[in-house]
Amino acid sequence: MFKVNTEAKRYKLSKYYETLLGLVAITAVNLIFYRHDPGFLSVSPHPYWIVILLTSTRYGFAGGLFSGIMAGLFLIVFKSLSIPDIELVDFKTLSMWGKPILFFIVGVVLGETRQLHLKEYSDVCEERDAYHDAFDKVKTKYDILSEAKQELDSKILSQESTLGTLYEAAQGLRTLSIDSIYPAVLDILREFMDVEECSIYLLDGTEFRLDTALRHGKSYLPEVVPWGESLMSIAAAQKRAVSIRDIASNESMPSGIIISAPILADNHQHVVGVLNVEKMPFLKFTSDSVRVAGLVADWCGSSVENATVFAETKDKLIADEITDAYTFDYFLRRLREEFVRARRYELDLSLIMLEFPGLSNASDEGRDEVLMAFSMILKNQVREIDILFISDEPGAFYLILPTTPTAGARVVVNNLLSSFKALSVMAFETDQNLVELRAGVAGYTLGMEDPAELVKNVKEDMVSVLFAE
């Protein structure tokens, strides 16, 4: 700050120094090289104009005023010295004051003109500086908003990625296989919460037994944990997710587990097991992570309950374990549902009847061989939405083909017959009674009022095919 003030002060005084220096320099040249004309009185235009013009145009009014006065004084001094026996009346003549007054007037006029330009220039500079300041402020705000936008975008992308990861991982819980649910739950914790180590213990009486675990390295997990000796017991007793923070004042703080959430079934009335988190990043260990663990445990409990109900229902409906064929009672109910759907939405629907006449008198071993071959062929030839049922007639099966026209059903029958023929020639050469297969096809047509018509039509279409050679 002091240096800036010094520079400004030096600039203000420089017009005086430069004026005096210029006049002295011209006078020195005059006295050295042009002694016969002191003061350049006979030279026109006078050399002092150089100092006046330069100073007034550079420094404005003050510079023009000072240079005009000083040039006039220098000129008056030399004129006074050039007149011998000068008298007072000589100072009253126009020749004495004419050119000095002209120096003064020109210096003032040029200086004032320049001063106006300098003022305009100063105003423009101030306006420019104001715009610069405003621009700097706007740029600062813009930079701040840009950083905020980047952070917000990154958070949005992170949330979208997290939600996408959670959704994709949660698809594993839609399975109806209990064995697939528990690993899917651990995958959700790993992907969504960056959990490094987690496990699932199932409650067996008064103890917890390890079922599934996700580990890094060779960390040890006990196979059995008695009730009352870990964070799992607290979570199971309170039926809510808990963490080590919830029992920080407890003298018997459990080691190893940092979050434990109960897996509940029967409308959150019965504890099936617990979901544990043993290791995760410190910054991720928040109250939100505890809530997420509880939410995932609830999903797990609902999925386990659905899978259990499905397994129990399937056990009641499936009458043949080899072919996974459903019961005849379920066939009648399901056929009516598909029939109503086809009639309402004008969809195709076909029914296939397959009969093995020789199965009724076959040995258990022969029957199992035929059904195993039949089951293997079905898995390769039919779709997942096609459903197999046992008929009320011995050795017969029904196959419902939703959204399939009669022509397509006949193609399926031909493929089944061809595959069964190729397999039976090799497998059942010693028992010719087992290689006979009867097949019939019927399809829904407009005007049908009862699914029993389909069953009647398919029986009438039955054709016997003997594969013996």
UniProtKB/TrEMBL annotation:
Coiled coil: none annotated. The chain crosses the membrane at residues 20-36, 48-77, 89-110. It comes from Maridesulfovibrio salexigens (strain ATCC 14822 / DSM 2638 / NCIMB 8403 / VKM B-1763). Residues 347-469 form the GGDEF domain. SUPFAM superfamilies: GAF domain-like (SSF55781), Nucleotide cyclase (SSF55073). SMART domains: GAF (SM00065), GGDEF (SM00267). This is Diguanylate cyclase with GAF sensor. It comes from the Bacteria. InterPro entries: GAF, GAF-like_dom_sf, GGDEF_dom, Nucleotide_cyclase, Rev_trsase/Diguanyl_cyclase. Keywords: Membrane, Transmembrane, Transmembrane helix.
